[in-house]
Amino acid sequence: MTEEEHIELGQASETVLALPAFNQVVNHLVESAFQTFVNSKPDQGEMRERAYNHYHGLVDVVDTMKQRVAVRDEILAKGDTRQEELDHE
To answer: What does the DSSP 8-state code read for residue 40?
Structure first.
């Protein structure tokens, strides 16, 4: 993947992460998974495991998007550093 593609993915991810609707949906799903987990009985292992996996799936999506933003920022910072070095030559 090119640096430009990483920058585009980071920008798109930042845009989505900033959307109130996205955050509301993610928070609702996280709360739902948590409630399912804590309200299940110890012998309801399959239900508990499904809630646990659902929660971690949501966290993985959000963390991946945050990582894409961080990669974009790193690429842009590296570009700024290169430009400053050229300006001082």
So the answer is: S
CA nearest neighbour of 11 among 66, 60, 80, 69: 69
Indicate whether this model's pTM tops 0.85: no
Tokens 């845009």 label which residue?
15
11 contacts 4 by C-beta, under 8 angstroms: no
Total Cβ atoms within 10 A of residue 81: 10
The pLDDT profile of the chain, 89 residues, written as one tens digit per residue, is: 999 999 999 999 999 999 999 999 999 999 999 999 999 998 999 999 999 999 999 999 999 999 999 999 999 999 866 655 556 55
Closest C-alpha among 56, 62, 70 to residue 10: 70
